[in-house]
Specification:
heterodimer, A: alpha+beta, about 30% strand, B: 7 helices, about 0% strand
Chain lengths: ~180, ~130
């Protein structure tokens, strides 16, 4: 069984319009996310939601950061995991304490940490409706030829291949092809 | 054959004890371990029957066992995380004062029994 994947470069923005005293309108676009967005079929069934975000609060405030995270009302319940390295780098919120731990097994936590080292950019991961969603923020335009410069540059092609390999490698990196649970 | 019959009989017996009436939490952990060992024995016994191993039913069983194990481990970890939070609250100021008033005590975490902490020896499983 091979894992079904989809990925794309995504630039998501929202628009705000403001009107000043002289009734001139000004439209602004604010970036929500720009980078690689990857969706794959996860190897376990689940019905709730779990999100894994980069942990900024704990890095700045230490243990007190966790208290702050616990009070975050915009998110679901804070899930405290037992891997200290994972806890330092990520914060996890989920709708169900047991289910989130069922998804984030100790081995998957290790694999996510390894993967984080590989990509360098901060990882945002969500587990919804038996799928895994991974967002990797990047500044460059991926999978696109440049218009003004030559495309015969081997470095450029290499970069495309690397981007593609990164996306395709996620399945291996997170071991999504292992289907030993009830989900086929 | 004799041995296999023994293994196959053991599981329903243990199961009957596990669901038949109230048992203390210590007994539950012990029964759980015994069932785990017995199931391990079945898995090894099955290796001798390639036909059986290849059947769909059996593969389904194997998947179910993996699933159950993963779910149980998740539940254990969730339990331990809440107990750790609770124990910290019982011992730390200012919540420890409330805990003392309500006579809340520290709770025990789920621990791996010594027998399971040893690296599993496949040789021993085969020799059974």
């Amino acid at each position: 069984m091979k894992t079904a994947v989809r990925f794309s470069e995504v630039h998501a923005e929202y628009k705000t319009t403001t009107r000043d005293s002289r009734r001139r309108t000004r439209t602004q676009w604010h970036t929500i996310f720009k980078g690689l967005f990857f969706i794959a079929d996860f190897n376990k069934h689940f019905s709730g939601r779990t999100v894994v975000l980069p942990d900024t609060a704990e890095r700045f405030f230490g243990r007190f950061g966790q208290t702050l995270q616990n009070m975050n009302l915009t998110r679901a319940e804070l899930i405290k995991l037992e891997d200290p390295e994972f806890e330092r780098q990520f914060v996890v919120y989920g709708t169900n304490q047991v289910e989130s731990r069922y998804i984030l097994s100790t081995s998957l936590m290790q694999r996510i940490l390894e993967f984080q080292k590989e990509v360098e950019a901060p990882l945002h991961i969500a587990f919804v409706a038996s799928s895994i969603y991974i967002a990797i923020a990047t500044r460059k335009n991926m999978f696109e030829p440049r218009i003004i410069r030559t495309i015969l540059d081997i470095g450029l092609i290499q970069e495309y291949v690397e981007d593609l390999q990164l996306a395709m490698g996620i399945v291996e990196d997170l071991n999504l092809n292992t289907r030993i649970w009830t989900k086929v | 054959m004799q041995h296999e019959a023994g293994v196959l009989k053991e599981v329903p017996e243990l199961r009957a004890r596990a669901i038949g009436g109230p048992i203390s939490s210590d007994d539950a952990v012990e029964l759980n371990n015994q069932i785990g060992r017995a199931l391990g024995g079945i898995m090894v016994a099955v290796e001798r029957y390639p036909d059986l191993k290849a059947t769909e039913n059996f593969q389904q069983l194997q998947r179910s066992l993996n699933e159950v194990e993963e779910q149980i481990s998740a539940a254990r970890r969730a339990f331990n995380a809440s107990v750790t939070d609770y124990n910290n609250a019982v011992e730390m100021f200012p919540t420890n004062m409330v805990a003392a008033m309500m006579s809340y005590r520290r709770r025990h975490l789920f621990e791996i029994p010594d027998a399971e902490r040893e690296a599993p020896s496949v040789k021993e499983l085969f020799a059974q």
